[in-house]
Structures are given as structure tokens and as C-alpha cells.
Predict the structure of SsrA-binding protein.
Amino acid sequence: MGPVQIRKLIADNKRARFDYYIEHTYEAGLVLTGTEVKSLRLGRANIGESYASPENNEVWLINSYVPEYGPASRFNHEPRRKRKLLLRAREVNQLYAAVNREGRTIVPLKLYFNERGLVKLELALAKGKKDHDKRDTTKEREWKREQGRLMRDRG
């Protein structure tokens, strides 16, 4: 997959790259209601605690938070409802096989509007990190930061 052109970022899951090894990324559309899109246009959403789950040849985004849209009053949506993801059949089969056979997790990375104004979700097929792997990641990040400081101060 080529580089993703992001027009307007809505939500970012910064914790995902710390907690998981990212193996493969996918771009998926979402089935949304009108009030959800309006709420997303205001830029208020959270995908930090969410995950995707393959069920019956479909992939669903679970536990993502899209707050209610104030002006919609009684016609509003449920903030934490399951949302269907739109993927190609081949991608759904790949995800289903990886989750069921290899024990992988499907983690949302970014929620954004693409250049056409459609809401897209960047998903990753990921493998969970153990605690010692997370410590190694932190040490490596701090060493790179220190290297940058040393190079900047000397050069």
C-alpha cells in the first residue's frame, strides 16, 4: 500500500505503536449516520480504546467513541455503537485468517477525512508486545532523542 494522503486528522491512536508490533496496514471506510459525520467534522472522537473484530465476513469497529452531535437532539446516535468497516473481500479474509489462526489483533491507528471528504480509518494488523519489549522500545526512543541532542550540540 502506498503512502496515505491525510487531509484532516480526526483522531490518532498514539498508544497503538507502543503496545503492538505493526505488521500490515489497511485503509477502511466506515458506515456512519449523518449525526456521526457532523460530530466528526467538529474533530471530537476517540479511538484509543477501540479495536476491530471480524464477524460473519464483515469487520466491525468496537468501542470507538464519537460524541453526540448537540443540535441533533433526539435524532442523535449512540456514542459507542459498533460501526461496520468497509474493506475489500480479500482484505477481510486476510484479517479473519490472521486473527483466528495467528492470534493477531486489528488495531485502529488513525481516523481522518481523505481528500474527497470521506471518513477513513487506518487499521493495522498487529501483534501484542510483552512488557520487556515495551521497555526496549522506550530505551531505544530515549537513546535516539539523546543522539539527536548530542549531534545538535556538537555540530
Q: What stands out?
A: The first strand starts at residue 8 and ends at 12. The beta strands are 8-12, 20-30, 51-55, 58-62, 83-86, 105-113, 119-128.
